[in-house]
Specification:
The complex is a heterodimer. Chain A is mainly α. Helices cover 68% and strands 2% of the residues of chain A. Chain A is globular, with a radius of gyration of 22 Å. Chain B is mainly α. Chain B has one domain: Ferritin, CATH 1.20.1260. Chain B has helices at 3-24, 33-61, 67-72, 92-113, 119-147, 151-165, 176-183, 194-207, 230-238, 240-244. The longest helix of chain B has 29 residues, at 33-61. The two termini of chain B are 28 Å apart. The chains are: A mainly alpha, B mainly alpha. The interface between A and B is large, with 48 and 47 residues. Chain B: InterPro entries: Aromatic_CoA_ox/epox, Ferritin-like, Ferritin-like_SF, PaaA_PaaC, PaaC.
Chain lengths: 318, 250
């Protein structure tokens, strides 16, 4: 392909994105677009799968049958999200095995929030309310992103996430209207999850390396700082309804800006966890790698059985 | 209160509760996403069935009892599940074998229970048949895949079947409560399911190139509340919140 032809293709491509047309797997796309999408979609898929672990931690101990069923269903939804996101990612010409390999080797990232431990039942509430709440803010704009398979997967993901968020809030509500120990448990969970949830929306705009290109491709519609502000503005009144205190002495309503001002985020902690040194990074990775490695003989058996069945079918036909 | 009926419901429900709890342990740790989702699905179905039974039992009990009191606040000796369902997830072959050996029985039981004179039990059975038909297909297919897969998977599956076989006979024990309920047309006489159970299981194991264990030594006790050493740990986990924070709503 000549340089002029390539330039022409690129122009048509950029025009299609500007016109809000969807890019489909068989369409021509710049290599960088493909790579960026593999990175982001797989990172998202990995986050769903690793995200099953901190909540899975409470399935056997859920305090009522109703909560147990809801939690199981929620964690199962996350597996489902992982499944459609991996499938969307595979349309870009990469296999699920390669994607797993990237996760297991540490080459691919997943959301750092899942490297924090879930130490009480109230964490199931806080994770739903705050973590899923922040995830929705990140994800809703992606329902309109330019890559068709990703956008369609996200429509489904967002519907379920919003259900999870309400479920988390309802757990918190029940705790806050319960016995003093329960309310204390809820406050403690908020104290531990608040700052990591703010960090979930990514580094400040000045530090974010991918924002500009991603905005152009509609992989991102708002900057990290805008999303964070939106999350805080939305969540503070919810904490008021619960009667809980946000653990930030600098948090206050700013009449002029029409937003909440908030305190300094501990970015050292953020980078420490991103770089693999959070409280549970090792446990999460060991759990994922362990499940995959222990499952090798199962997957091999399934392949071998399918092969045998095929051979038997052919020999029968002959 | 109708004590026989109440006890009989626990006998039915505790199997679902404990089997569901065991599968729930695996959520997020399956050999791949598809089996992870499927095992969670089975667990969810079993907890759904448990709730149906316990809500009914709570109604019979009165005294403002709830499904959660029955699920979480009994002592070990009061749980009536069979020993089979409390066996641990030693590996995926054990999980599948345990569930398969239970599912075949469970479906046979429900196919009879749907004709119960008790409308609630009949309704629960009818709903559950649809779910359990899928369970037995899923686990049966995996027994075949693992049995007739690779040498390693064959060995693991055979080990699991050999290890769990001793718990199969208890499924067909008839307790005093179950006997009375069967006589009243409410419950199922499970002893009549035994031959067809072993026929079905034998046929599938043979198809899976597995050897049907020859041992005639069996374990029992679960139905009368005498469990294996695993049960205490299951309950310690399951009851943790209810025991640590008594009388609270969640």
């Amino acid at each position: 392909m000549s340089e002029a032809q390539l330039k022409n293709l690129e122009e048509i491509f950029e025009q299609r994105i500007a016109n809000d047309e969807k890019i489909e797997p068989k369409d021509w796309m710049p290599e960088k677009y493909r790579k960026t999408h593999i990175r982001q979609i797989s990172q998202h898929a990995h986050s769903e799968i690793v995200g099953m672990l901190p909540e899975g931690n409470w399935i056997t101990r859920a305090p009522s049958l109703r909560r147990k069923v809801a939690l199981l269903a929620k964690v199962q939804d996350e597996a489902g999200h992982g499944l459609y996101l991996y499938s969307a990612c595979e349309t870009l010409g990469i296999s699920r095995e390669e994607l797993y390999e990237q996760l297991h080797s540490g080459k691919a990232k997943y959301s750092s929030i899942f490297n924090y431990p879930t130490v009480s039942w109230a964490d199931m509430g806080a994770v739903g309310w705050l973590v899923d709440g922040a995830a929705i803010i990140n994800q809703v704009p992606l329902c309109n992103t330019s890559y068709g398979p990703y956008a369609r997967a996200m429509i489904r993901v967002c519907k379920e996430e919003s259900f999870h968020q309400r479920q988390g809030f309802e757990i918190m509500m029940k705790l806050c209207n319960g016995a003093p120990e329960q309310k204390e448990m809820a406050q403690d969970a908020l104290n531990r999850w608040w700052w990591p949830s703010l960090m979930m929306l990514g580094p400040t705009d000045a530090e974010s390396v991918h924002t500009e290109q991603s905005m152009k491709w509609k992989l991102k519609r708002k900057t990290n700082d805008e999303l964070r502000q939106q999350f805080i503005d939305q969540t503070v009144p919810q904490a008021d309804i619960l009667g809980l205190t946000i653990p930030d002495p600098d948090l206050k309503w700013n009449e002029e800006t029409g937003h909440y001002d908030f305190g300094e985020i501990d970015w050292d902690e953020f980078w420490q966890v991103v770089k693999g040194h959070g409280p549970c990074n090792k446990e999460r990775m060991n759990a994922r790698v362990g499940a995959w490695e222990e499952g090798t003989w199962v997957r091999d058996a399934a392949m071998s059985y399918a092969e045998k069945k095929k051979v038997r079918k052919i020999s029968k036909a002959v | 209160m109708k004590t026989n009926l109440y006890n009989y419901i626990l006998e039915l429900a505790d199997n679902c509760l404990i089997a569901g709890q065991r599968l729930g342990e695996l959520c997020g740790h399956g050999p791949n996403l598809e089996t992870d989702i499927a095992c969670t699905n089975i667990s969810l179905d079993l907890f759904g069935q448990t709730r149906g039974y316990f809500q009914y039992a709570a109604e019979l009990k009165g005294e403002d009892k709830t499904e959660d009191d029955i699920a979480f606040l009994r002592i070990e000796r009061e749980y009536k599940n069979v020993l089979l369902v409390e066996q641990p997830n030693r590996d995926f072959a054990y999980t599948i074998a345990r569930q398969y050996l239970f599912d075949v029985y469970h479906l046979l039981l429900l196919e009879k229970l749907q004709f119960s004179q008790d409308m609630t039990l009949s309704a629960i059975a009818k709903k559950s048949i649809k779910e359990v038909s899928y369970h037995v297909r899923f686990t049966g297919d995996w027994v075949k895949r693992l049995g007739d897969g690779t040498e390693i998977s064959h060995e693991k599956m055979q080990n699991a079947i050999d290890g769990l076989w001793t718990y199969t006979n208890e499924l067909f024990e008839v307790t005093e409560d179950a006997k009375i309920m069967a006589e009243e047309g409410i419950g199922v006489d499970v002893s009549v399911l035994k031959d067809v159970y072993y026929e079905k299981v034998t046929a599938l194991l043979q198809e899976a190139t597995l050897t049907v264990p020859a041992s005639k030594y069996f374990q029992k006790g679960g139905k009368s509340g005498i469990h294996t050493e695993h049960m205490g740990y299951i309950l310690a986990d399951m009851q943790y919140m209810q025991r640590a924070y008594p009388n609270m709503k969640w």
